[in-house]
Design brief:
Layout lengths: L16 H13 L1 E3 L3 E3 L6 E6 L6 H14 L10 H20 L10 H14 L4 E8 L3 E8 L5 H20 L12 E4 L3 H17 L13 H8 L9
Antiparallel strand pairs: 1-2, 3-5, 3-6, 4-5
Helix pairs in contact: 2-3, 4-5
Length: 239
């Protein structure tokens, strides 16, 4: 497989007013709210986190309601959103730390058959939709770092991956028709090359930081392990 460049320069500078207007419209369309803010600028790599349904206790969810309410107030993406993004990252860090402990809720992703369904979907079934940089499957959540190909929307990628893996996993677990993934997802886009590699390191070191393995490539369900299985010495995309 030919090496894919990891540069993530974003959209080139536009010289004409009409081009600037189109860019602004595209950016607005890629920014939306549900319970949490989602901003998917075209051409950027996106860090996504999905968790299993019921993986957080209600007491913890209640603690987040105030900040979620503040973050969900409509606001156009501008330089003034920095403080909101900082709060968003703090919220993500709290959630991720709790999920890593996996003290409550389902831990279906620890079952190799279930994990295999998710990994095959990432690496094979929907690989034509995106460039996959990194991923890790933990007991109750999944981190993915990817860049959509062409004009494929991140929301469409998420819908397909979550929908397919939920159906197949539920068949295996004999719980067809029940929720598998929590509907809401966390996401964050890479703003420069340094942040790009910080995200990759965060994802692949997740099992190490959680105390599950000593080396990132020792965690079976991860991009670090997949690169090792492929005999790749240099960092490159997996799809």
């Amino acid at each position: 497989m030919a090496q894919t460049s990891v540069c993530d320069p974003g959209t080139p500078k536009l010289k004409r007013q009409g081009q600037r207007q189109n860019s602004m419209e595209a950016s607005a369309k890629s920014f939306y709210y549900r319970n949490l803010p989602h901003w998917h600028p075209p051409g950027r790599s996106i860090f996504l986190t999905w968790r299993l349904y019921g993986s957080l206790p209600q007491s913890i969810i209640n603690q987040f309601r105030v900040i979620r309410h503040q973050l969900s107030k409509p606001s156009r993406p501008t330089a003034n959103t920095d403080n909101r993004l900082i709060e968003y990252k703090r919220l993500f860090a709290k959630v991720d730390a709790i999920l890593d402990k996996a003290k409550t809720g389902p831990i279906w992703l620890l079952q190799s058959e279930v994990a295999s369904i998710v990994e095959r979907a990432l690496l094979e079934k929907y690989a034509h939709l995106y460039t996959l940089w990194a991923y890790v499957l933990m007991a109750n959540h999944l981190h993915v770092f990817l860049k959509s190909k062409g004009d494929v929307a991140i929301g469409d990628i998420t819908k397909r991956l979550k929908g397919y893996t939920a159906r197949e996993a539920n068949k295996l677990l004999q719980r067809t028709g029940q929720p598998f993934w929590q509907d809401e997802s966390f996401d964050h886009w890479s703003r420069d090359r340094a942040e790009f590699f910080r995200i990759v390191d965060y994802i692949e070191n997740n099992p190490v930081n959680a105390g599950l393995v000593e080396n990132r490539e020792d965690w079976r369900w991860s991009s670090a392990a997949e690169r090792k299985r492929r005999g790749l010495n240099d960092f490159q995309a997996l799809t």
